[in-house]
Design brief:
The protein is α/β, with parallel strands linked by helices. It has a domain of about 70 residues: Nucleotidyltransferase, domain 5. It contains 3 helices and 5 strands. Strands 3-2-1-4-5 form a 5-stranded mixed beta sheet, with helices on one face. Helix 2 runs parallel beside helix 3. The chain is elongated, with a radius of gyration of 38 Å.
């Protein structure tokens, strides 16, 4: 007496995956995720200052040094007589307790030697707040 446990034909094999356990696991994880999310309040807690309103800070004084294409140096729109005049003005700026900002704006066509001389003089005389502006002209 022989016992036939399975079918002998290969055409009856099931090739689909059973997704029921996967769906069950997914639903359990989704429920656990929803439970563990903290309840969010819609209130925004802010610490507001108490006391008199402070006055806005005074904007710093700005000195603009323009260098023309031929090496002419301008100090806030007026021409500087020479290197000695420029250095005397820079030393007066360096002697101030609250130094103004010095904005150096060279022309695109000026030689680098002139710009380097101005920056070296400013550093040697003790000007600490100096910066180059107008750099967008050098992108081309």
């Amino acid at each position: 007496m022989a016992m036939n446990v399975g079918s002998s034909s290969d055409d009856d094999m099931m090739v689909d995956i059973n997704t029921t356990p996967l769906i069950d696991v997914m639903l359990v994880l989704l429920i656990m995720f929803i439970i563990t999310i903290p309840v969010q309040t819609h209130a925004v807690k802010m610490n507001m200052p108490i006391g008199p309103a402070s006055t806005p800070p005074v904007p710093p004084e700005i000195i603009r040094i323009d260098v023309d294409f031929d090496g002419q140096i301008g100090w806030n729109g007026e021409l500087v007589a020479g290197r000695g005049d420029l250095e005397s003005r820079l030393s007066a700026v360096a002697q101030r307790a609250d130094q103004p900002e010095v904005h150096l704006r060279p022309n695109k066509l000026v030689e680098y030697e002139v710009v380097a001389m101005i920056m070296a003089s400013a550093q040697r005389l003790g000007v600490t707040k100096i910066g180059l502006i107008g750099n967008e002209q050098f992108l081309d």
